[in-house]
Amino acid sequence: MVVHARKQPRQPRAKETVRAILEATAQILDRESLDAATTKRIAEVAGVSIGSLYQYFSHRDAILEALQDREFERTLAVMQAVFGDGHIDKAPIETVTAALRGLAQLYSQSPGLHRVLTIEGLRVAKSEHVHAFDRRVIDLVRHFLATIRAPLRVTDLEAAAFIIYQSVRATMLAHLLERPHGLDVDRLIAELTQLITSYVLGSAESRG
Amino acid sequence: MVVHARKQPRQPRAKETVRAILEATAQILDRESLDAATTKRIAEVAGVSIGSLYQYFSHRDAILEALQDREFERTLAVMQAVFGDGHIDKAPIETVTAALRGLAQLYSQSPGLHRVLTIEGLRVAKSEHVHAFDRRVIDLVRHFLATIRAPLRVTDLEAAAFIIYQSVRATMLAHLLERPHGLDVDRLIAELTQLITSYVLGSAESRG
Amino acid sequence: MVVHARKQPRQPRAKETVRAILEATAQILDRESLDAATTKRIAEVAGVSIGSLYQYFSHRDAILEALQDREFERTLAVMQAVFGDGHIDKAPIETVTAALRGLAQLYSQSPGLHRVLTIEGLRVAKSEHVHAFDRRVIDLVRHFLATIRAPLRVTDLEAAAFIIYQSVRATMLAHLLERPHGLDVDRLIAELTQLITSYVLGSAESRG
Amino acid sequence: MVVHARKQPRQPRAKETVRAILEATAQILDRESLDAATTKRIAEVAGVSIGSLYQYFSHRDAILEALQDREFERTLAVMQAVFGDGHIDKAPIETVTAALRGLAQLYSQSPGLHRVLTIEGLRVAKSEHVHAFDRRVIDLVRHFLATIRAPLRVTDLEAAAFIIYQSVRATMLAHLLERPHGLDVDRLIAELTQLITSYVLGSAESRG
DNA sequence: GATGAATGAGAATTCATTCAT
DNA sequence: CATGAATGAATTCTCATTCAT
């Protein structure tokens, strides 16, 4: 899973080192910026030597990719849990709210990390990595839409999933980074739920 | 207009140089990336010397800011035209469609530029520049919502404007950069119109 | 006399331009620093174009050299006046005081200029220009010492002239630049007079 | 001691690198000039890469400051040794001679370095560093004057110390840089001793 | 003559990566 | 394995000088 790792850490000490490196990088991205995440700074914060970075990661970007992996897995896990079979009998509006809640919590834990992931998604040469993640999330959303029993207003589920994914991500991230006053997270989730359900189901259903 | 210009170009040759620098930078941002826009590369593409960059721009970022300015003004002009008095009697759905069309056209002219502007908006230390632009666009949207005659479903217009702005921007940009197959721009505009009108007005009105 | 001048200014307008350039440079050296005296800045302050600088001076340093010339001539003029025949009958202490007074006045008119001239004198490859000036001043001092009628305590007049020149220059300049509190210029002159006459004549004579 | 060092060199190899950098810089200052001491040139002469300069010094000037420190400490050590308790019973003329001898030796070891230090003292924005050194040397001289048992001719010891410091420094440095023929260092010291003692004590005492 | 736009060599500094210890 | 000193390509920016208008 850790694609670019130079060597799989097997010993406890090695695992701890890898964990420290990823934690340090996440912290720097969260509190500072992508530019601040130099190898020197990561090594400092992690409390290891620069050499150790290259023991486990072939190049600097591999560290970021490993972090992406971790965050991608967490995000997908949250969505899979919400969209899982257990929720198929609930009202769509509740599933949507649950998904948004889960995402909001995830984002708020490391907004800087998601900020960087979004920026990566804006690169011209977007990595396969990032592309595959987008694909998987959109597939999950599309699948969710397809399993809604109520009549849908939207017909092109692929397009709808794409739009919903982009809208939710951008809005949540902007909210977290800018913290516009007078708009707390619960209210944001309520509004986004409204946005999505109105779009997908039409107002009657979303009201009911 | 060129806020950070070191010197206002007076002679024709000078104006041409400034134009070449901005054009070159826009092209690099469009086709490559923000990182690729080094002073060396910009000068090369513009066909001028590095020194000439600094005749008219105090530092590298000032070139980007000048480009931002240009794009900000264009964007605001489009929106002001659409939201202007002439449209107050039209159905909201038409105004929304017109605005989205205008934006889509603008974005498609220089997607890379808007990509960079979006990235700038994701920086920890977002510049006053970028912030002010976001503010003005959201104000325009809010004002538009406030002048709709039909009964609104949303109550917090500030929140609604914020969500709409972020959603439209992210979706349009992602569409332009990824070009998801099977989703042409007209369809995208139709879907986004649906998204917005359903959210703001409820389905009955948006259908009508 | 203006050694490096590219062309002798003959027309009134041209003379005025040269004057403006030298004045501007002197002002910048006085108020700012040697580094601040860029061709761009000199042209700005002088109110001429950069091109005009090169109309009259072959290269930037030629401007500084012309300034040196001017200052060197002034300095030598002051000393020649004091050490001239008229003063041969006065007491040495009075001549020394008069010379110091003249120099103090000259230095205070443009301390920054003399600062730069001193720095030039500290360059490894001191220009012939600067060297020749040092030589001439020391010759003047030596000649003055040789014409004193009272018995001298010093025997090596060349050495004495060298020491006196360096001491006076450094002390006066440091005084002007640092303005040590509690030491006004009259007091400084009195002290330096004491320093020199005691050294050259011994205390009995310097007291008388 | 190395105030601006970025990192304290611990390993032998590192110490050797720092030493090489300082040695190279001193050599360039001695044989060439302050302007010649570019980072590229220092690295070349030191036989290290430019990057290594920045391992140990935060910026170019920090290298010069480290050199200054080294020289300041040496200079003060020489003067403290001479003006120390052991010399209080000796004749002032001997203490002055000893001090001048010590300084002459120090200056002759690295004239270029002292040249640069003097130039730094002539900068408009003289660094606190340099200023503090001047202050300390003048304080030492003043204290020495105050402890002389013989009756002094000078009354303002602060002014006298200032004048003596500037005169000795400038004269010794000029002597070293210009090497005026017919004036060897012993003779220079004798003359400067004469200059100082005559000034401070009057000729009778300085003769005895 | 006068102008000032254009030039480009050269300066300081950063940072991912390597490798001897 | 771990370390961190060393590397040097690449970046931004300055400024004396030239030359077309």
Can you walk through the features of this model?
The structure is a homotetramer of 208-residue chains. Chain A has 208 residues and is mainly α. Chain A folds into two domains: 12-58, Arc Repressor Mutant, subunit A (Orthogonal Bundle), CATH 1.10.10; 68-207, Tetracycline Repressor, domain 2. In chain A, 73% of the residues lie in helices and 0% in strands. Chain A is built from ten helices and no strands. Chain A has helices spanning 12-31, 39-46, 50-56, 60-83, 92-109, 111-121, 128-147, 157-178, 185-201, 203-207. In chain A, helix 1 (12-31) packs across helix 2 (39-46), helix 5 packs across helix 8 (157-178) and helix 5 crosses helix 9 (185-201). The first copy, chain A, is elongated, with a radius of gyration of 19 Å. Chain A starts with 11 loop residues before the first helix and ends with a helix. The model of chain A is unreliable at 204-208 (pLDDT under 50). Chains in contact: A-B, C-D. The A-B interface holds A 32-33, 112, 115, 118-119, 121-126, 134, 153-154, 156, 158-160, 162-163, 166-167, 169-171, 173-175, 177, 180, 182-183, 187-188, 191-192, 194-195, 198-199, 202-204 and B 31-33, 112, 115, 118-119, 121-125, 153-154, 156, 158-160, 162-163, 166-167, 169-171, 173-175, 177-178, 180, 182-183, 187-188, 191-192, 194-195, 198-199, 202-204. The structure holds a DNA duplex (21 and 21 nucleotides).
